[in-house]
């Protein structure tokens, strides 16, 4: 036989009736119900005035809460969340607070309040078991351009064949500054070197470069040396690689890929490499000028400028003593269409008729010059600025004869042909 369940309201009614009939005292009734005498009399007054409905549990929230977030601010928080989501940026509580400050709100709520507002609105799901950020051990190089992180991720072009292309990204480890974005047909060492050339052209060479163990960056797993490694060594840039199957070493780039993917997904899809490159350049400028949570909400541009390593003042020197200048200059252009000469800095460098009209990149540090066709080193020489043409080379690398089947300099969609130099932002 099932036992009848008595609700709490019915239990209170039985107690009130027993006390009124004199079968129990108020103290005994309070002990049985585990309530205080004040609660007993308050519930009895409500029962006498409203009946059983007066015994139903009521909200304990205050009638007035001056510190409560106003409805107008709640609407601004929800609107900022939706706007960031449409634009493709991170839309957590920290990003929303930065957006409210950017939009002119003088005293926006704190991050925890914004998180609670989003939770009440059903826009996020709490994750109490998530590992807190304070538990992570962070490492960062002490100054700008001490180390660049380079990596690539895939992107599907919006064409009938759904072609998968690669996006090479380079970030400065100290400032999280986006150094270069390059759309490339495949993940190979030529694309990695082209992206690195773009970065060096804009900001000069870094001290080190960090990459994973992909064949585009290193061949150490196969006991070979790819051209990306060789070229960095020629420029005096040390290459370090992450531990195999341990992407956390290059975690800054891995996390940046998620931001780039989300932003690209919110834009009209690109159909060609040229359109994708235009999108990436716009993304790079916007990314470098928005607050970054990993650098105390500074913008990457601010952190890059403040994190630059101080250099001693330049000493007075004779204008002919260019060997003492250690700044690397990057010259991009085409060899003359007839004889294959490269004219730069009042100096003529002969390359050979096979390079006539081809895109050439030269790195000049003092009087030392490295000349590349694509990723191939074709000349390494010490410039003699007293001569009109430099015929004597300290080293001559094997000629990399241009192959029309792998590269067409007249192709308008080729990133090598159409690469443009951008000023420092």
In brief:
The protein has helices spanning 8-21, 26-33, 37-50, 71-87, 93-102, 111-120, 189-203, 227-234, 251-265, 273-288, 300-306, 415-418; strands spanning 147-156, 164-172, 178-184, 208-211, 238-241, 328-334, 341-344, 347-350, 359-365, 368-373, 376-382.
How does this model look, in words?
The protein is an alpha+beta fold. It has four domains: 8-55; 71-126; 147-306, Nucleotidyltransferase, domain 5, CATH 3.30.420.10; 322-418, no CATH class. Helix content is 32%, strand content 16%. It has helices at residues 8-21, 26-33, 37-50, 71-87, 93-102, 111-120, 189-203, 227-234, 251-265, 273-288, 300-306, 415-418, and strands at residues 147-156, 164-172, 178-184, 208-211, 238-241, 328-334, 341-344, 347-350, 359-365, 368-373, 376-382. A five-stranded mixed β-sheet has the order 3-2-1-4-5, sandwiched between helices. The chain is elongated, with a radius of gyration of 34 Å. The N and C termini lie far apart (82 Å).
Mean pLDDT: 82
CATH topology (fold) name of the largest domain: Nucleotidyltransferase, domain 5
Quaternary structure state of the chains depicted: single chain
Q: What is the β-strand count?
A: 11
For the biggest sheet, the summary is: 5 strands, mixed
Supply the CATH superfamily name of the largest domain.
Ribonuclease H-like superfamily/Ribonuclease H
How many structural units, i.e. domains?
Answer: 4
User: Order of helices and strands, N to C?
Assistant: HHHHHHEEEHEHEHHHEEEEEEH
Which ranges are low-confidence, i.e. pLDDT below 50, for 5 or more consecutive residues?
A: 316-325, 392-399, 403-425
If you compute it from the alpha carbons, what radius of gyration comes out, rounded to the nearest whole angstrom?
34 Å
Beta-strand percentage range:
15-25%
Task: Report the CATH C-level class of the largest domain.
Answer: Alpha Beta
Strands in their spatial order, largest beta sheet: 3-2-1-4-5
Q: Total helix count?
A: 12
The N- and C-terminal alpha carbons lie at a distance of 82 Å
Structural class: alpha+beta
Helix-residue proportion: 25-40%
Globally, the shape reads elongated
